[in-house]
Amino acid sequence: MPELPEVEALRDFLHERLTGREVRRVMPVAVSVLKTYDPGPDALEGRTVTGVQRHGKFLDLDADGLHLVVHLARAGWLRWREALPAQPPRPGKGPLALRLWLAEPAAGGGGNADAEGFDLTEAGTRKRLVVYCVHDPGEVPGVARLGPDPLADEFTPEVFAELLRGKRQRLKGLLRDQSVVAGIGNAYSDEILHAARMSPFKIAAEMSEDEIAALYEALRVTLRDAVERSRGVAAGELKAEKKTGLRVHGRKGQPCPVCGDTVREVSFSDSALQYCPTCQTGGKPLADRRMSRLLK
C-alpha cells in the first residue's frame, strides 16, 4: 500500500506535470471507483489544474476549485502515460479504474491526438481504490477524520505526547490509526518501531517521557528519510524504491541490519507485521496469534 512517503513523491511528480494544464476528460472505468456523483467527473473537463496536495495517504488534484481526491488503497497505483489513446477504454474486469486525459498544450496537436495523462489501476479482485469529486476535500469522510500530518511543522513533540496520553492502544495499531496520525501504514509503522527499538505491542499509555521522545524522533526521521529517498523517483519506480529502503518490514527470515538477529513475523487475518526480537522485545519472540503476548 502506498503510504505517506510514496504519496508525497506522487504529489511532487503530479504537481510538476499537471499544474497549469487543462483537463480534457476524466473517465471512471471500474464501477466501484467513484464515490460521488454531484458534481460528476465531467465537471473537471476544461478546468485548469492549479495544484496537487496530499492529505495523509490521499492525493488531491485541485482544478480551479474542484477537487479530484484519490485513495490508492492496498493494491492501487497511478501510472503516468505520455500518450493516452483518444478512444475511451471499455469497462471490464481488468485493473484499469479511471483514466484522465490532459488537453494538448497550446502549441500541441489537435483535439483528437493522443495526449498525456494518467491511469489509476488496481490489482486483484478486492477493489478498494476510491475517487471523489468534491468542492472541498473536507467533504471526503477519510480526509475529514485524519489526525495531524507527522511531517508538518506543527507536529511537535508536545503534540505527539498529547496524542498518546491515556491511549490503551498497542503502538502498532496506534501508528496506523489515521485519526491519530495521518499517512502511516503497515510498512512504515514496522520501520518506525524498529528504529525506536520498541515492541509493536507496547501500550501507548504506559510509555515514559523518554520513550515518547524516542518514538517521536524515530517517526520523524524514518518518514523524512523515506521521503528524501523517494523524491525525484519516477512514479513507476516508487514501489521498488520503497522496498529497498525497508529494514524489517517484508523481510521475515532475513538478518536484522542492526544486530544480525533473524527478523520475525506475526500474522493476522489480513496483514502481518515484522520485527527484530533483539532490537525490540528483549530477545523474546512474539507469539504468532491474533491476541499475541510476549512468550514467557
TrEMBL record:
Matching CDD domains: BaFpgNei_N_1
Pfam families, sorted: Fapy_DNA_glyco, H2TH, zf-FPG_IleRS
Domain of life (superkingdom): Bacteria
Reported cofactor(s): Zn(2+)
Catalytic activity: Hydrolysis of DNA containing ring-opened 7-methylguanine residues, releasing 2,6-diamino-4-hydroxy-5-(N-methyl)formamidopyrimidine
Protein name, per record: Formamidopyrimidine-DNA glycosylase
Domain FPG-type: 247-281
Segments forming domain Formamidopyrimidine-DNA glycosylase catalytic: 2-93
Keyword entries, A-Z: DNA damage, DNA repair, DNA-binding, Glycosidase, Hydrolase, Lyase, Metal-binding, Multifunctional enzyme, Zinc, Zinc-finger
Organism: Streptomyces daqingensis
Family per similarity comment: Belongs to the FPG family.
SUPFAM superfamilies: Glucocorticoid receptor-like (DNA-binding domain), N-terminal domain of MutM-like DNA repair proteins, S13-like H2TH domain
